[in-house]
Amino acid sequence: MKRLILGVLIALTLFLVACNNEGTDNNINTDFIASDEDMFTDKDLSCDYESTDVITIELKGDKIESSTQLDINEATLTIKDGSTYLITGNLNNGQIIIDAPNQKPTLLLSGVSITTQGSCPIYVKSCKKTFITLCKDTANYLASQGEYIAIDENNIDSVIFAKDDLTINGEGTLEIDAQQGNGIVGKDDLVITNGAYIIKAQNHGIDANNSVRLSTPNITINSGKDGIHVENEDETKGYAYISKPSLTIDSGGDGIDASSNVQIENGTIKITTTQGEETDSYKGIKSGATILLNNGTLEINSYDDCLHGTDILINECKAILSSSDDGVHADNTLIINNGEITIEKSYEGLEAQNITINNGNIVLTSSDDGINAAGGTDNSGFGGGFSPDNFGRPGQRPGGMGGDMGGGMGSTSSDGSIIINGGTVNITANGDGIDANGYLEINGGFVTVCGPTQGDTAVLDYDLTGTINGGSFIGTGSSMMAQTLTSTTHGIISLSVGNQSSGSTITVTDSQGNVLLSYTPKLNYAIFIVSIPELIKGESYTVKIGDLEGTFEAQ
C-alpha cells in the first residue's frame, strides 16, 4: 500500500501566542426580556362579553342602524364613549370612527364586512385604548380601495388605523385587504391575541410605533413591504414581542423589522422575503438592537440575511434558514446556548464580531465563510465575487503545509472571537471554514469543517490564536492558506494529503488497531486536521485515506 508521502504538516510549530481578550465583550444585555404577564392584560387575552351589556349595530349596505341613539351620518358611525358594541352586517362604503378620549370602547365583530373607498373601515382617532374582538366562529372582512384621501390632520394609510393603543383579539377570523397602503397601523401599542388573520397589503402588513405584541394568533401576511414593521426613535420603544404564534409572512421587504428588540417565545414562524420594488432590505428578522429566540420553530427563506441584529441570543429553537446573504448576522455579539439550527444556503453562515456557541446542533452550508468573526459587511453576499476581508488579511501564521505558508502579507488583527464550548457544529463552506479575525477557542463540542480545495480559502483562518482545550475538531479543505491549531490539550494530527476526492473516507486507528475516527468529507480536500480526546500527544496513529496509509505522531 502506498505510503502517505506528503507527510506531516510539521505540527505547525505549536507556539502559544498570548491572547489579549481586553475589550472583547461576549455578553448581551438582557434587561429588555419580558414575559406574557408583562406584555398583556387580562382583557387583552379575554374574548368574553355579556350580550345583555352591549349596544347592537347593524350594517345595512349604505346605512347603519343601532339599538340606541348614536352619532350616525349615513354610512359613518362615530363612537364617543367606552361602551361595548356588537356589530353585524355589510357596509359598502362606510366607516367606524372611535373618538372617545380617555375611554376604552370595545367593538365585537360578528360577521362584519366593510369596504371603504379612499379611507379606512375602522379609524381610532382618539381614546385610551380600543378593543376589537372577533366573535367566535365568525368571519369578518375589512378592505380599503383607491388612494387615501385626508379627512383630518392624521395621515390615514391603512385598513385599520389607530392613533392610540389598540388590541385585536377573539375566536373568529379577520381578513384585511389593503389594495394600497398598510394593513393595520397602530401609532402606540398594537396587541393581537388569539383569532385567525389574513392580511394582504401593498405596503407593510402590520405597522406600529411603540410596539407590536402578539400572543397565540394565527396570522398570514402577504405584503409589498415589511410583514411586521415597528419603529420608534425612543430606544425603549419600537420593539416586537411575539409569543406562541402561528405566523406566516411573505414580504417584499423584511419579514419582521423592529428598530429596537425582537423577542420570540415559542410558536411556529415561517418567513419568505423577496426583492420588492420599493424596499432595499429583504431580511427575515431584523432588529436595531437584540433578537432573542426562546423555543419554537423558525423557517426563513430570505433574499437578504435570515436573522440580522446588533446582538442575537438564541436560547433554544429549531431553525431552518436559507439566504442569498448571511444565515445569521450580528453586528456585535452572537450567542447560541442551545437549539437545532440548519442553514441550508448562505453567503456566510454565522457572522458577528464575537461568537459564542455553548450548545446545540448546528449544520450550515455557505458559499463563503462558514463562521466569521469580525469580517464581512451587511451586503457582502451581493455582487457574485469573492469579497475581501474588511479587517485585512492575517499576517504571520504558525507554519504551513510542509513548511512556511504564512507571513509577508501584512497583518491587521482585530478583537473578534469565536468560542465554542459545546454542541455539534458541522460546516460545509466554499470559503474559510472558521474565520476568526482575532482568536478561536474550542473548549468542548464536536466541530467539523469541510472546505473546498480551490481559491484563497482555509479550513481555519485566525489572526491571533487557535486553541482547543476540549471537545473534538475535524477539518478538511484547501492547502493554499492552511493553518492548524496553535495550542491543544489533547493530541493533534495535521496532514497534507494531496488531492483527495469527496468519496475518500478517512480513518484513524491507534497502535492496537482500534478505530478512533471514520469520516468522509463532502468536498474534495488537500489537507486533514484532527484533534480529538482519544489522541494522546507523543503517541503514533495510523491514518488511511483511500488507498493511502501512514503512521504519524500526535503533536
Topology of helices and strands:
Elements: E1 2-3, H1 36-39, H2 42-45, E2 54-61, E3 63-66, E4 71-73, E5 76-79, E6 84-91, E7 95-100, E8 106-117, E9 122-127, E10 129-134, E11 139-145, E12 158-162, E13 165-170, E14 173-178, E15 182-186, E16 189-193, E17 196-201, E18 206-208, E19 211-215, E20 218-223, E21 228-230, E22 239-243, E23 246-251, E24 256-258, E25 262-265, E26 268-273, E27 285-287, E28 290-302, E29 307-323, E30 328-336, E31 340-345, E32 350-352, E33 354-357, E34 361-366, E35 371-373, E36 416-420, E37 424-429, E38 434-436, E39 438-442, E40 446-450, E41 460-462, E42 466-468, E43 472-477, E44 487-488, E45 493-500, E46 506-509, E47 515-519, E48 525-531, E49 540-545, E50 548-553
Parallel strand pairs: 1-50, 2-6, 5-7, 6-8, 7-9, 8-10, 8-11, 9-12, 10-13, 11-14, 12-15, 13-16, 14-17, 15-18, 16-19, 17-20, 18-21, 19-22, 20-23, 21-24, 22-25, 23-26, 24-27, 25-28, 26-28, 27-29, 28-29, 29-30, 29-31, 30-32, 30-33, 31-34, 32-35, 33-36, 34-37, 35-38, 36-39, 37-40, 38-41, 39-42, ...
Antiparallel strand pairs: 2-3, 4-5, 43-48, 45-48, 46-47, 46-49, 49-50
The helix/strand class is mainly beta
Number of helices: 2
Number of strands: 50
Mean model confidence by pLDDT: 88
Terminal CA distance reads: 25 Å
Biggest sheet statistics: 14 strands, parallel, barrel
Strand content: over 45%
Shape by Cα distribution: elongated
Helix content: under 10%
**Radius of gyration (Å):** 29 Å
Low-confidence stretches: 1-24, 376-413
| Spatial order of the strands forming the largest sheet | 8-10-13-16-19-22-25-28-26-23-20-17-14-11
